Predict the structure of SDR family NAD(P)-dependent oxidoreductase.
Amino acid sequence: MSGVRDRVIVVTGAGGGLGREYALFLAAAGAKVVVNDLGGARDGSGAGTSMADGVVEEIRAAGGTAVPSYDSVATAEGAQAIIGTALEAFGAVHGVVNNAGILRDAAFHKMADEHWDAVLRVHLDGGYHVTRSAWPHLREQGFGRIVMATSTSGLFGNFGQSNYGAAKNGLVGLVNTLAIEGRRHGIGVNAVAPMAATRMTADVAPSEVLAKLPPEHVAPVVAQLLTDECADTGLVLVAGGGQVYRVQLFQGKGVSFAEPPSLDEIGSRWAEITAMDEAVPGTNPVG
Ligand code: NAI
């Protein structure tokens, strides 16, 4: 096989915004797509079937292959049902785009446990549950492609998005370990931080900025990570508005102490400890 042709790919949160664009793009490239969407509002309230159904209709009208799934990514049962839909409809699952998401912004002093939990549940637990449900099938067939939707708010921080940023960077942590565990089974696991005008970003940037960020710019990047040919794993890419680039953690040269240092010794060498001028790509010293 080549590209994504005949691959069965699950796109969560595909009833609108970026997920819809991914689903349309992948179907046009010959993938069989499970269009999953809970069909609720931006804050995660409500549910319905019309969002997923609408995108499935669009794909079929264009001659593509797709089935809907209305389950929530946020629970193990929902995730199993989503992957079950792929298995029932197409007999396999080859790729997952963990794209479903909600927003409950608040400055940290106003953050409510309920908003923290809701956002973590959909983004981080959702990424875990859906990937966990697909994983045994990917291992067994010796092939798989996972894309996690991360965010520059998680990678770099953003005012009012402590819950969202923690969840999004949590997904990068998941990518790092799954890239290691998946490598020997032909499973590639990567993250994309998109930038696009959707209902999620409708009121966070001026309209002239949003006009330059159509979701169409992101879909080919996500699709590339799902192809048979793309053997990369553990990457974090930012994509949007015509720009595509990689983000990576670097580590400074630092300082070595033969004996446990005193507070004064740490203080006196603080500039060297925090310097990044001789930084190199970071690695896990115990990995
Ligand atoms: P969106 O709100 O248009 O799409 C999210 C979709 O997920 C919605 O269709 C929603 O119904 C669905 N969804 C929500 N909870 C769900 C659940 N429990 N189970 C299944 N589906 C559920 O927003 P957008 O912008 O398309 O976001 C897609 C992804 O990209 C999200 O993960 C978001 O955090 C991420 N992202 C988007 C950015 C942007 O610039 N638009 C920036 C950074 C990240």
Observations:
- The chain has two domains: 8-248, 251-281.
- The mean pLDDT is 97.
- Residues 142 and 197 are 36 Å apart (CA to CA).
- The pocket of NAI is lined by residues 12-13, 15-19, 36-40, 42, 44, 51, 72-74, 99-102, 122, 126, 149, 151, 193-196, 198-201 (CB under 6 Å).
